[in-house]
Amino acid sequence: MLLWGQWLSGAWYRQRLSGCCLYRCYTLFSSASASGLAKLLHDKLLQPLSIFCARIVSGNEIADNRLNLNQNMGGDIMAAKKAVKKTVKKTVKRKAASKIKDPVFETVKIERDKGITFLIMNRPEKRNAMSPQLHMDMNDAIDYLSIDPATDVLVVTGAGKAFSAGQDIKLYFRGTADDPAARAKARRASNAWRWQKLSRFPKPTIAMVNGFCFGGAFTQVCACDFAIASNTATFGLSEVNWGIIPGGIVSWNVVQVMNYRNAVYYATTGEPFNGKRATEIGMVNKSVPAGKLKAEVMKLARLMQEKSPAAVRYTKEAIRSVRFMNEPEAADYLNAKSDALKHVDKEDSRGQGMSQFLDEKSYRPGLGHFERRNKG
Ligand code: ACO
What is the DSSP string of 197-250? Predict the structure, then answer.
């Protein structure tokens, strides 16, 4: 048996026999494995053979999944078979997702890295100032990505040396000054993506502030769940410097992330501040040297990928919503939200988390997260 296995695993086998054929044989034979000799054959020969074939056909992940599941489920072969099928399906889905042809936009681009999607304001020669076209493009891109199964975490950033220099003073303000309809359309699009759509995005969102961030660009930073900046990024509520107020909803945004004194100070002086100062006043979570910015963002994004997606989504929705409620409303809303989570969470995170802590004793919730073995 051992020699036969070694011979099978040689180059000759891989070149001339398809792993799929063996795997299909296993499937046929296993249907007759209810009793006696068939069961013995099934357990001792066909099951290990199928694991071997699964390794050849689809990689170690699937075979390991089969092995783990068989051990965990006391040899429940049918359940293990289902799990393998699910893993194959998901592997194919993920591979297909990596080949997705994303739509092409005039002023926005999309880049991907294994479930992390970068949504990039792309007018570097204009420091990513937000023109009406950029607002339309961002709206379309966020609509598209909000239902994209290949996006686990969304990172919003800017091309070149700016995050965004705010509203395009030429195209957004002067360009629509004599055209109320065009102004209204641009304003609606501007508010929709920067706040309504981004703050309610169903997956975790991170603003990666790589450089200049002025005026209207504060809104999308505040809308994201997290913000990480380069130490040398330049922030500024510069509206006062050319005679307007922080409009749109910028004034409303800044009093939520900064304290009142700092909001008034920076809005009335227009004084620029860097990433370190942005951290001190609560505008961003942290700042790091420019060369480490992307790595820091990726670290957070990968952490988010490991947490229960349903629990993360419901948590961020809860935190965002309770800010505007009184205590009885918040208590009632949070009760209902907790109950709803049990029903919508296809991974049964709560069940997995509880059993891995109480029964398996494989982790401590106070110190880290449970292992997602039932990815939905
Ligand atoms: N609106 C329109 N055009 C802009 C904007 C803007 N907000 N920001 C930069 N640009 C354009 C410049 O006019 C210039 O165009 P040009 O090459 O056709 O002359 C180009 O982008 C590059 O800008 P520079 O000023 O040459 O670049 P520099 O790196 O020296 O400075 C900075 C960058 C500091 C961002 C500067 O451009 C600036 O102060 N921009 C305005 C920032 C601002 O106050 N934004 C708030 C707008 S109001 C609001 O958002 C509600």
Answer: IHHT-SS-EEEEE-SEEETTHHHHHHHSSEEEEETT-EEE-GGGGGT--STTTH
Kindly give, in sequence order, each residue whose CB lies less than 8 Å from that of residue 215, ignoring residues fewer than 6 positions away. 165, 166, 167, 236, 237, 238, 239, 246, 250
Q: Ligand 1 centroid to 104 CA: how many Å?
A: 25
The CA–CA distances, whole Å, from 131 to 12, 123, 185, 261 equal 61, 9, 12, 31
Collect all residues with Cβ–Cβ distance below 8 Å to 176 and sequence separation of at least 6. 132, 182, 183, 186
Distance 122 CA to ligand 1 centre (A): 14
pLDDT one-digit tens code per residue, 63-85 = 333 333 333 333 343 444 444 44
Spacing, Cα 183 to ligand 1 middle (Å): 20
pLDDT digits (tens, 9 = 90+) for 48-60: 443 333 333 333 3
pTM for this structure? 0.78
Rounded CA gap, 344 and 331, in Å?
A: 20
SS (H, E, C) 28-88: HHHCCCCCHHHHHHHHHHHHHHHHHHHHHHHCHHHHHHHHHHHHHCCCCHHHHHHHHHHHH
* Distance (Å, whole) CA 190 – CA 245: 17
- 158 in contact with ligand 1, CB cutoff 6 A: no
131 Cβ closer than 6 Å to some ligand 1 atom? no
Low-confidence stretches of the chain (pLDDT < 50) are 1-89, 91-92, 95
Between CA 98 and CA 52 the distance in angstroms is: 27
Strand pairing report for 234-236 and 212-214? parallel
Q: What share of the chain is helix, strand, coil (3-state, %, to 5)?
A: 60, 10, 30
